[in-house]
Amino acid sequence: MELISRPRRLRRTPALRAMVRQFSLSASDFIYPLFIHENRENESITAMPGISRWSLEGLIRQVAIAWDLGIRCVVLFPKISDHLKNANGDECLNESGLIPKAIRLIKQEYPGMAVMTDVALDPYSSDGHDGIVSKEGIILNDETVDILCRQAIVQARAGADLIGPSDMMDGRVKAIREALDNEGFQDIGIISYTAKYASAYYGPFREALDSAPSTITSKPIPSDKSTYQMDPANLREALIEAFWDEHEGADILMVKPGLAYLDVISSLRQNTKQPIAAYNVSGEYSMVKAAAERGWINERAVVLETLLCFKRAGADLILTYHACDAAFWLANN
Length: 333
Fold this sequence. Notes:
Elements: H1 14-19, E1 30-36, E2 43-44, E3 52-54, H2 56-68, E4 73-78, H3 98-109, E5 114-119, E6 132-133, E7 139-140, H4 141-158, E8 162-165, H5 172-182, E9 189-196, H6 203-209, H7 236-248, E10 252-256, H8 262-269, E11 276-280, H9 282-293, H10 299-313, E12 317-320, H11 323-331
Parallel strand pairs: 1-3, 1-4, 1-12, 4-5, 5-8, 8-9, 9-10, 10-11, 11-12
Antiparallel strand pairs: 2-3, 6-7
């Protein structure tokens, strides 16, 4: 064959492949999600093999492991005791609560570790929604945003580096940015859940935090979060959300879930200069772990390929429960 172009020339050896490789992974790309609770013992999460709800002591051990592997950011999610929950999620405003306590502890032991937080009411709400539920069963936008602003300030005072509004209320990025600035926290960043879809991939996460919508209540509670999280059928809507988040002051834009929404990540990458994060969510993690446990896939190869694909699609950062394993594999190739 008389071919001028032979793309295989640059695939011939490992050295040549490495020379022209377009994307790569490093431990500093990862944000490590950590579930915490007030209990003294760590508790394994059945639906997420290898993941636990950590005591504060266990949390610090995990942060130490992550730090030694080169991971430089963790995100905290609280499992709140039922007796502390109410319809307004008031426990999220407790300056001595679980999340502020955990932030201060991490900053005391590992001051260089960036701490991202979650701003939403669902871990604290007896109704299990990200916002306040009216007596008619409607998620109240503006009333919720007021509480979210106060929650963000509590987290910033404790030492958070990145505030992560995951609630999907309209206008919350602008309101949180103004609230933080007014309290002197101009340097605290906002990593917004810009395109958070009403996805079936969140199931194991809701087991981990016991944060699913309530079915035991005297008022009508929506059974899902589709009135505020995005419809999985919609792509262009993500660009609208990204436009507003960017103009309202978000420093980083996030797409959640990640693996089934690579097209959304790619579309945002083409339309914004802001850093983009992808959330490799619990359902995606659990499917890989389940298949690996059965010997159906090579876990290491699949995980590293998946994470690399997030980068190729346009993500700068990846929230992933595989973070420590992936960082270890990358360091020991």
